[in-house]
Design goal:
This protein has 219 residues and is mostly helical. It has 9 helices and 2 strands, in the order H-H-H-E-E-H-H-H-H-H-H. It is globular and about 55 Å long.
């Protein structure tokens, strides 16, 4: 029998990757059939996703995937910029040759897969996760852990907009890595800040374009 944790993880990834689109109705019967699970673990997983603010109950009582907004994106990226710069600073203090090698391996995978939307987004997620592990700050890890699904939703929106943004994202990670390799903490922090700000600008542009397309009937 599928556990509620498994159901939660599956639904979480579908929402984060946009396979369950913003505003999509979450029919319990349809989801139970698709995932081949009983209603009990499904309902528990849905309750957890609702607590995470990833889904919401409409006025009709039905559950829907929570929408994306420019305000939420801007707020998320502002908080993320501060926390990621702190992470870079603390990771630099703990950096070793083997840890740098781990970061470099992730970068090489990203460079080889710039044509794959999800691969680049996943590579970026892993790069930041490795930095967070190196920094060893439990509070930052906890806060970013709470924000992570929301940040990842927008990260996938950002990398989905085109090849140029994916190439730019890879270059930005290379600059961060290069500064850390040289032991230049301030440059690494500045590069991280630029990376987050560029990501925010790209997400806001993508959301604006999406809304404009909806206003024109998808033409």
């Amino acid at each position: 029998m599928a556990s509620r944790d498994w159901v939660y993880r599956v639904l979480l990834e579908l929402i984060v990757r946009g396979q369950l689109k913003p505003g999509a109705w979450l029919s319990e019967s349809n989801l139970a059939n698709q995932l081949e699970v009983s209603r009990t673990p499904l309902r528990e997983a849905l309750q957890r996703l609702q607590s995470d603010l990833l889904i919401e109950r409409g006025q009709n009582g039905k559950l829907y995937v929570r929408g994306l907004s420019r305000k939420e994106a801007s707020d998320l990226y502002a908080v993320r910029a501060s926390l990621e710069q702190l992470t870079v600073e603390e990771a630099a203090a703990n950096m070793t040759g083997s840890k740098l090698a781990t970061l470099e391996e992730g970068l090489e995978r990203m460079k080889l897969e710039t044509g794959q939307v999800e691969a680049v987004a996943e590579g970026g997620r892993e790069f930041h996760d490795v930095l967070l592990d190196i920094a060893e700050n439990e509070i930052t890890s906890w806060v970013l852990g709470q924000l992570k699904p929301h940040i990842d939703r927008y990260r996938f929106v950002s990398t989905r907009t085109g090849q140029e943004r994916r190439l730019q994202a890879v270059r930005e990670h290379e600059v961060i890595y290069g500064a850390l390799r040289e032991g230049d903490v301030e440059s690494a922090k500045s590069a991280m800040k630029r990376h987050i700000e560029n990501g925010r600008a790209n997400v806001l542009a993508a959301l604006a374009a999406s809304h404009e397309q909806e206003d024109h009937g998808g033409e």
